[in-house]
Design goal:
This protein is an alpha/beta fold. The protein contains 30 helices and 25 strands. It has an eight-stranded mixed β-sheet. Its cofactor is thiamine diphosphate. E1 component of the 2-oxoglutarate dehydrogenase (OGDH) complex which catalyzes the decarboxylation of 2-oxoglutarate, the first step in the conversion of 2-oxoglutarate to succinyl-CoA and CO(2). This is oxoglutarate dehydrogenase (succinyl-transferring).
């Protein structure tokens, strides 16, 4: 190339981009136009030849070729160990597409926009070879969808400078082979010793264990002190033994059914969690493998929440000390929506963990689906991560060195940019979905290939032998690992058996406690007034909305005892008293800062602010000197991932009041898998104690099917083994005491609160100041009518929730002086003693009626009728008043709602009919 053109191309590298960035990628059209103009000028001034202009055009085409390989090269990468498909036709990766011919291959072009060489130029042949080695080898990198120029250049430099090839020492290669041997050895041992038992083998994906080992060791060198791992069952037993160092003999005991069973239910071995401390060059690293149910990806937000709690405990705001690692299956990653929700949390203030390392064990098969047309609608299983511009490294599982290199690069990227990164290990599944399957029934072609495959370990051992690292090296390692298995010894060296971090949580104070244990939740009057004054004193510099100012002015009066305390103030004072006492509070949910029904106003927005990230004031962060943190987060429009995150947070932090609030109680439907598989059953399956609070707005206000019911019946159905607390408080003092009870009492059980909507502003639901400075949460609230004569009562109406106030109004209208109304504020565990004592107050009552807003097949009726019957006296009859059974939670027409509401209230006072249970 003539010197004048080379100088021009070199200068182009320093010209700012059109968008003002420092990107080295230059738009082609302006460059071509500038060439044309320069050529014209040269023709006029220097009579430049047409040949010069042709060379210039070729240089632009070379730049286009480079850009194409950076964007599309992964499509030609050697990724499939089974080599089942031909390389696709991609014209943009062919030199002919750019009118470059064989005669151009030895022409020298500018190479200053690449990192292949320190020289300024290369021949076209050298450029093409470098591009194919870098982007089309056993690592296929997808990086060009990233919009940040600095990150793109970072990847280009890392990959192109080594051409995506590692340069490992002999000792490093032996260490990789040892990990492959361990991975294969465990599976072969179990396959021989426990024939036909399910273990979800990793065979075909052994390089994953080499990646995990590299990740742990390099993370430790970079200052990471904790790694929390979430994964489904494929390869889980291998990770337990070969990464976390679980004793093989303990795993064998689980296969032999001789392991201790000290849990009410327990779980299968490939769902179990584990933790250990591993020595690295950078110091001890604590590894935690999260417990996981069969839902393949639901553990992911749980891990993120657990990591965030650990980071908060350490003050690790950058995510430098605690690392989340998520392991996925290829089909589940894109197929299960919780991943989209979890990814969307990645960069948000309330949920960011400083970047997650994702590893995909890509078996190229979806359970029993081998036809690519049925696997997904995207090119790659990883395409979902492009929504957050996460880079992806596809890597051939049969090249363990490439897998280890990809792991090193991924960790370096995460620690540098604090963003998510994906390693897609393309491998295969040697056996069926489980060891009882016959995969060739549905994948005959694939399993012919797999049957002929010698195994990744064998291929790598032969490669090292060919490199002169020992002809018997592979066999010697196999024998050594088999001996370790026979002896049941550790396979991870060294596991630190006596190390304990100062950040570890002591859960012992919360074990063995009973729900009936007392809790002093009253707040002394002087403390109440002090906190209330701090809570309601808003700086003059904050320009409050008139409506919000009215709320805080009223709260100030409530704090002084001048007017009764409403629901929002009761909540606020519970939070204020807890943070003042050293208990952090974390409240999240859609629009929970304001409150869906605008009752909370925990965040005051300056009405004259000019920037979106300035001008907010959170009173609960300023109630006491040295107070604990109060965090309120308006979450993304997600239920499943956010609730999973908060469960994970609470599972790692028992001393924080962690609350998730649904915008409407019905929205918990979208998170039902978290409720079923973690919240309700986590303790009986895994022994995981958790104090998460769910606040679910619930109430029949004529707003239609999806804005009425939080599906109380579902929680009642899940209630057993004292696994959770289900409450429906009906006054401001009750919400105050139940929230304080959750932390003051050393009992950590999920607390499900069915919170009201209309009662938030109902004056009848307010409470006098005295109810906060004495007393506690009352599981049952008896008759409140002072002049009711107990001996004259013929009927006791039992209810829960908002309908109580409707019943009181109806009784007043009917002047029914022989009817008592009892509220059950805690539905589970059912307060038999308190409820029984209330019924005993009315010895002459013959009728007991359970009244509810919900349809008969929903709500609490079918669950509480047995509890009520147990506490009834001889001769008493139990009846039902409420809406008839329905397939829908509520009707959608206002007039029909009103008719039903009137009918159920009439029924509560009418003669018993229909189903009647007699004592």
């Amino acid at each position: 190339m003539p010197d004048n053109w080379r100088d021009y191309f070199d200068a182009l590298q320093h010209v700012p981009a059109v968008d003002g960035s420092d990107s080295r990628d230059v738009a082609h059209a302006p460059v071509i136009e500038s060439f044309a103009q320069r050529a014209k000028a040269n023709a006029f001034a220097h009579k430049a030849s047409e040949a010069d202009l042709a060379v210039a055009r070729k240089q632009v085409h070379v730049q286009s070729l480079i850009a194409a390989y950076r964007s599309l090269g992964s499509r030609w990468a050697d990724l499939d160990p089974l080599k089942r498909t031909e390389r696709p036709k991609i014209p943009e990766l062919e030199t002919a597409f750019y009118d470059l011919t064989e005669s151009d291959m030895d022409i020298t072009f500018s190479a200053t926009n690449t990192y292949f060489t320190k020289a300024d130029s290369m021949t076209l042949r050298e450029i093409v070879q470098a591009l194919r080695e870098t982007y089309c080898s056993t690592i296929g990198a997808e990086i060009m969808h990233i919009t940040e120029p600095t990150e793109k250049r970072w990847w280009q430099e890392r990959l192109e400078s080594i051409r995506s090839k590692p340069s490992f020492s002999a000792e490093k290669k032996k260490a990789i082979l040892e990990r492959l041997t361990a991975a294969e050895g465990l599976e072969r041992f179990l396959h021989t010793k426990y024939v036909g038992q399910k273990r979800f083998s990793l065979e075909g994906g052994e390089s994953f264990i080499a990646a995990m080992d590299e990740l742990v060791q390099k993370a430790g060198e970079k200052g990471v002190q904790e790694i929390v791992i979430g994964m489904a069952h494929r390869g889980r037993l291998n990770v337990l033994v070969n990464t976390l160092g679980k004793m093989p003999k303990d795993l064998f005991a689980e296969f032999d059914h001789t392991a201790p069973e000290d849990l009410p239910a327990g779980d299968v071995k490939y769902h179990q969690g584990f933790s250990s401390d591993i020595s690295t060059a950078g110091g001890p690293v604590h590894l935690s493998l999260a417990f996981n149910p069969s839902h393949l990806e639901i553990v992911n937000p749980v891990v993120e929440g657990s990591v965030r709690a650990r980071q908060d405990r350490r003050g690790d705001t950058a995510g430098a000390q605690v690392l989340p690692v998520l392991v996925h299956g290829d089909s589940a990653f894109g197929g299960q929506g919780v991943n989209q929700e979890t990814l969307m949390l990645a960069a948000t203030r309330g949920y960011s963990t400083g970047g997650t390392v994702h590893l995909i064990i890509n078996n190229q098969i979806g359970f029993t689906t081998s036809d690519p047309r049925d696997l997904r609608s995207t090119l790659y299983c990883t395409d979902i991560v492009k929504m957050i511009e996460a880079p992806v490294l596809h890597v051939n599982g049969d090249d363990p060195e490439a897998v280890v290199l990809a792991t090193q690069l991924a960790l370096e990227y995460r620690m540098t940019f604090r963003k998510d990164i994906v390693i897609d290990i393309v491998c295969f599944r040697k056996l069926g979905h489980n060891e009882q399957d016959t995969p060739s029934l549905t994948q005959p072609l694939m399993y012919k290939k797999i049957g002929a495959h010698p195994g990744t370990r064998k291929l790598y051992a032969d490669k090292l032998a060919a490199q002169g690292l020992g002809a018997t090296l592979g066999d010697d390692m196999v024998k050594a690992y088999r001996a370790a298995m026979d002896a049941g010894r550790h396979t991870v060296d060294p596991v630190l058996s006596n190390y304990k971090s100062k950040y570890a949580v002591d859960w012992s104070p919360f074990l063995g406690k009973k729900w009936t244990d007392a809790a002093d939740t009253a707040l002394p009057l002087t403390e109440w007034k002090r906190l209330a004054e701090r809570l309601t004193t808003i700086p003059a510099s904050v320009n409050m909305h008139p409506l919000v100012k009215k709320v805080y002015d009223d709260r100030a009066a409530m704090g002084r005892g001048e007017i009764n305390v409403d629901w929002g103030m009761g909540e606020h004072m519970a939070f204020a008293s807890l943070v003042a006492a050293g208990y952090p509070v974390r409240l999240s949910g859609e629009d929970c800062g304001r409150g869906t029904f605008t009752h909370r106003h925990a965040v005051v927005h300056d009405q004259k602010r000019e920037k979106w990230d300035e001008g907010t004031y959170i009173p609960l962060q300023h109630v006491a000197d040295g107070q604990a943190t109060f965090t309120v987060i308006d979450s993304i429009l997600s239920e499943e991932a956010v609730l999973g995150f908060e469960y994970g947070y609470a599972s790692a932090e028992p001393n924080t009041l962690t609350i998730w609030e649904a915008q409407f109680g019905d929205f918990a439907n979208g998170a039902q898998v978290v409720i079923d598989q973690f919240i309700a059953s986590g303790e009986v399956k895994w022994g995981r104690v958790n104090g998460l609070v769910l606040m679910l707005p619930h109430g029949y206000e004529g707003q239609g099917p999806e804005h009425s019911s939080a599906r109380l019946e579902r929680f009642m159905q899940l209630a057993a083994d004292t696994n959770m607390q289900i409450v429906q408080p009906t006054s401001a003092s009750q919400i105050f005491h139940v929230l304080r009870r959750q932390m003051v009492r050393n009992l950590r059980k999920p607390l499900i609160i069915f919170t009201p909507k209309s009662l938030l502003r109902n004056k009848d639901a307010t409470s006098p100041l005295a109810d906060f400075t004495k007393g506690d949460f009352r599981t049952v609230l008896g008759e409140q009518k002072a002049d009711l004569v107990a001996e004259k009562v013929k009927r006791v109406i039992v209810c829960s929730g908002k309908v109580y106030y409707d019943l009181v109004k109806k009784r007043d209208e009917k002047k029914a002086s022989d009817v008592a109304i009892v509220r059950v504020e805690q539905l589970y565990p059912f307060p038999h003693r308190a409820f029984g004592n209330e019924l005993k107050k009315y010895p002459n009552a013959t009728d007991i009626v359970w009244c509810q807003d919900e349809p008969q097949n929903q709500g609490a009726w079918f669950f509480v009728q047995h509890y009520i019957h147990e506490n009834m006296q001889e001769g008493q009859k139990l009846g039902y008043a409420g809406r008839p059974a329905s397939a829908s939670p509520a009707v959608g027409y206002a007039h029909l709602h009103q008719d039903q509401q009137k009918a159920l209230l009439d029924q509560a006072f009418a003669k018993l009919k229909g189903f009647v249970l007699t004592k």
